[in-house]
């Protein structure tokens, strides 16, 4: 079992536990997955962009050629694009945007990209709320997937904190401190699921 399979299996088990035990009075997060990618189509896509995609992302595509995550009962969803949608999204980028950015997922108004020029650094995920400003997530796909499955709204608050750090001092609210403490408790109890 590779790391991506482990992350997805752990996620599904946690959601089953939430459903059956009503843990934390939370609604389970629903994940709908596509079948595995057509490997010939994946190879043609990589030839077309003249770049080999990261191995952890390819591992994901070999399990699910895209997925949709519903983090709550609202109409919000996180789309992890199939290879077919990668082609479409890449073609829809404005000609003024960076040639190295490959959009691979979207949550509400947040778009996630792989910066193809940073693949060797293993910190190639960037995201934006508009086409003007991009934020480095300082992570690879595997780390992004763990983070997004655990807390789909993480990047919305992250970007807000980065913005405010450059304008005014950031002070965590009591609620944020409680949430961080709860997440820390869960991670320390479950050593099998690490964010590194």
Task: Describe the structure using short key phrases.
7-stranded antiparallel beta sheet, 196 residues, alpha+beta, single chain, SMI1/KNR4-like
Brief rundown of the structure:
The protein has 196 residues and is α+β, with helices and mostly antiparallel strands. The protein has 7 helices and 7 strands, in the order αβααββαββββααα.
Query: Which structural class do the helices and strands define?
Result: alpha+beta
Round the mean pLDDT to the nearest integer and report it: 76
Strand content: 15-25%
CATH architecture heading: 3-Layer(aba) Sandwich
| Spatial separation of the terminal alpha carbons | 18 Å
Give a written overview of the molecule.
Helix 1 (3-21) packs parallel to helix 5. The longest helix is centred in the N-terminal third of the chain and has 19 residues, at 3-21. A seven-stranded antiparallel sheet has the order 1-2-3-4-5-6-7. The protein has a single domain (3-152), classed as SMI1/KNR4-like. 44% of the residues lie in helices and 16% in strands. By secondary structure, it is an alpha+beta fold. The relative contact order is 0.11. It is globular.
Which helices and strands, and how do they pair?
Layout: H1 3-21, E1 30-33, H2 39-49, H3 55-63, E2 67-70, E3 78-80, H4 83-92, E4 101-107, E5 110-115, E6 125-128, E7 134-136, H5 141-150, H6 154-165, H7 174-189
Antiparallel strand pairs: 1-2, 2-3, 3-4, 4-5, 5-6, 6-7
Helix pairs in contact: 1-5
């Amino acid at each position: 079992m590779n790391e991506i399979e482990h992350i997805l299996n752990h996620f599904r088990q946690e959601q089953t536990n939430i459903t059956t035990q009503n843990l934390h009075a939370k609604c389970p997060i629903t994940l709908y997955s596509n079948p595995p990618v057509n490997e010939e189509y994946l190879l043609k896509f990589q030839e077309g962009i003249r770049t080999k995609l990261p191995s952890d992302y390819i591992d994901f595509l070999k399990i699910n050629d895209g997925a949709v995550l519903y983090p709550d009962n609202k109409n919000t969803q996180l789309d992890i694009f199939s290879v077919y949608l990668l082609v479409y999204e890449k073609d829809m980028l404005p000609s003024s945007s960076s040639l190295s950015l490959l959009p691979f997922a979207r949550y509400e108004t947040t778009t996630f990209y792989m910066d193809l020029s940073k693949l060797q650094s293993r910190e190639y995920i960037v995201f934006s709320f508009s086409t003007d400003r991009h934020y480095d997530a300082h992570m690879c796909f595997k780390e992004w997937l763990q983070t997004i499955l655990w807390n789909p709204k993480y990047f919305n608050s992250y970007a807000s904190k980065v913005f405010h750090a450059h304008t005014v001092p950031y002070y965590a609210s009591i609620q944020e401190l409680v949430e961080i403490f709860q997440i820390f408790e869960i991670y320390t109890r479950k050593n099998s699921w690490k964010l590194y």
